[in-house]
Each structure stands twice: as structure tokens, then as C-alpha cells.
Amino acid sequence: MRELVLVVPGSLEQRTGGYRYDARMVAGLRARGWSVSVGELDGAFPGPDPAAESALNTALVGCPDRGAVLLDGLAAGAFPEVLAHHAARLRLIYLLHHPLGLETGLEPARAEDLLARERAALGQVHGVVATSAYTADQAAAWGVPPGRLKAVPPGIERWPQATGPAPGEPPLLLCVGSVVPRKGQLELVQALARLGSRDWRAVLVGSSVRDPAYARRVEAAIVTAGLADRIEWAGECDDAALEAWFEGASVFVLPSTYEGYGMAYTEAMARGVPVIGTTGGAIPGTVPEAAGRLVPPGDIEALADAVAGLLDDPTVRERMGWAAREAMTRRPDWSTAVDALEQTLEAWLP
């Protein structure tokens, strides 16, 4: 039986794209006979934070010699010294969702420090698994050799076609993502403030506790724009509630400044919901041109125009939705994604 330890910050059950990727891979490997244990670390990540550093070191100390450890980048990226201390004893694999220093809202010095730390961390591991080809290219540019680098994108769930709003209801704009600056909820509200004369309603799904100050800014913008009766805060939803929102959506809108992949886009497209996003990071590689509209990050006017265009033309919405759904049927499912990860691990962990 193959044995593997996955190390993540906090609970694996957190409802973000990165944690959901990790959880699906754990479940898939276990179904294939792997023994996978999960180390859930306390501390403020990505750090550097003394409690987080100590938690990571303690978790690695507890791994047996030659043990295989899959390190979520959020847990390990800021601590290259810890990885260096264990690199000769353990077989460390780094799971790179997106570079830590590219999080929106960081002070320049903080961003540069995180990027430098993560580049150093990648130099201490046996291999790097990136969750998109775009992110793998970034790791390659940092000097990770091809033999130690593999892109393993998320799988696509097979969902029934979304039905959209009930008859007589206005189009529903759905935004799913933690309420943090990188996801662009503030820009979305500012764009919607320009579309008050059109018939629509919107819902923001996602945790508002990861950056409370930013969440308050978004809420204040909603109130200032007079949109409190048209934009609903749904918070962090369970699977059933999230599925209901996707089922009733007319358009999925997530104006992220940057995504290392963007699972929320594929989840919308797999249901036949057209998407509006940005050209930030890996999003153009995730969202086919025929499936939606992408605008420059932070361009409020372009975002408003994109939303208006889909609100005004249900025929275009339908065409883009079908194109999105068709494109997703041609992408690998989760079983194939787990196969790719398993084959990569077996190649690197003889």
C-alpha cells in the first residue's frame, strides 16, 4: 500500500477551490488503495508566522524517514528553511495552486518576500505539481526543471444543465468566491452600480471572514449604490445550497484579479452557465472564448459593459452557455485528474 501525508493549513474541509482540489485528490487516491493521512496545521498562513512555522516543522518531524509528503503551497511556501531541514530525509512534493506573492492587496515588499521564499521552497522539494499549465510555466520560469514539474489540472464534474431563474424572475448574476480583494467583489458591485436601470439580481456566495475589512468595504459599496435590495449575501454555502444557486443562475461573474486555475468558472460552465471573468492569470486558459467574456482586471467600465451585454441578449447567453457546457465535456473528469496525480507520484516516489 502506498502511503502519503498531505499537509494543509487548517481544516481540509474549507470551501475554497484549493482545498476542494486537495480533498478530491485525497478521496481519489484513497479509493485507489493509497493510505493518505492529512496534517491540518494551526497558525497564520502563509506566514511567515512563528506558530505556523512550528506547526509545519512538527508535522514533518512526525513523518517517517523516506516518507512521502505532499505539501500544499499555502502551508509550505513561506518556509523554505523548514523544507531544507527535512529535504534529505523525506520525499517532499510541492502542490502549487498559485504563487503566494501574487495575492491581490499585498504591499510590494510583502509580495516580493513571499515570491522569494516560495522560489526557494521549490528548490527544496523532489517535485512540483501545479494545478494548471499556466502555473507550471511560472514554476519553470523560476528554474524548476521539466523532470520535476507536472501540471495536473482539476477534474470537471458532470452536472445537469442549469435551468436558470423561475419564469417571471429577473436574470440572476452569480458570484462564487471568498470575499477577498483578489476575487474582485468590490469591482463587481461598482460595475453593477452602473446597471441600475436594467432588470437583474445578484448573489455573492463565499466566506466573508477571511478578510473582514474588505467584506465591510463591499457591503458599504452595496449600500452606497442603493443595491441592498438587489444583491444578496449568501455567505459560505453547503453543497446543496451552492447547487441551488448554480441551478438558478443566468450568468456567472467572478472578476478575479488573478487565478491559478479558477475552478468556480469550470463549475459554472459545466452546468451550461455563461461566464464573465478577467484576463488575469490562468483564466483565459480556463474559460474558452466562446463560453463567456473576459475583461482586463480592475476595468470597471469593461466589466459593466460585459454584464450589460449578456443581460440584454438572452440569445447570446444561451449560445455561450451551450458552448461552455460542450467545452467542459471535452475536459478530463476527476477520475482522470486523480490518475494523473497518481502516475506523477509513482514516478517521483520509487
By CATH reckoning, the class of the largest domain would read Alpha Beta
Query: What's the arrangement of strands in the largest beta sheet?
Result: 2-1-3-4-5-6
Return the CATH topology of the largest domain: Rossmann fold
Total individual domains: 2
Mean pLDDT: 95
Within CATH, the superfamily of the largest domain carries the name Glycogen Phosphorylase B
CATH architecture title of the largest domain: 3-Layer(aba) Sandwich
Biggest sheet architecture: 6 strands, parallel
User: What class, by secondary structure content?
Assistant: alpha/beta
Strand residue content: 15-25%
**How does the overall form come out from the CA principal axes?**
globular
Q: Level of helix content?
A: 40-55%
Structure, described:
By secondary structure, the protein is of the alpha/beta class. It folds into two domains: 3-155 and 332-348, Glycogen Phosphorylase B (Rossmann fold, 3-Layer(aba) Sandwich), CATH 3.40.50; 172-329, Rossmann fold. It has helices spanning 17-31, 50-61, 73-76, 80-86, 108-122, 133-141, 185-192, 212-224, 239-247, 263-270, 283-286, 300-312, 314-329, 334-348; strands spanning 3-9, 35-41, 68-72, 91-96, 127-130, 149-151, 172-176, 201-205, 231-235, 251-253, 275-278, 292-295. Strands 2-1-3-4-5-6 form a six-stranded parallel beta sheet, sandwiched between helices. A six-stranded parallel beta sheet has the order 9-8-7-10-11-12, with helices on both faces. Helix 7 crosses helix 12. The radius of gyration is 21 Å and the shape is globular. 47% of the residues are buried.
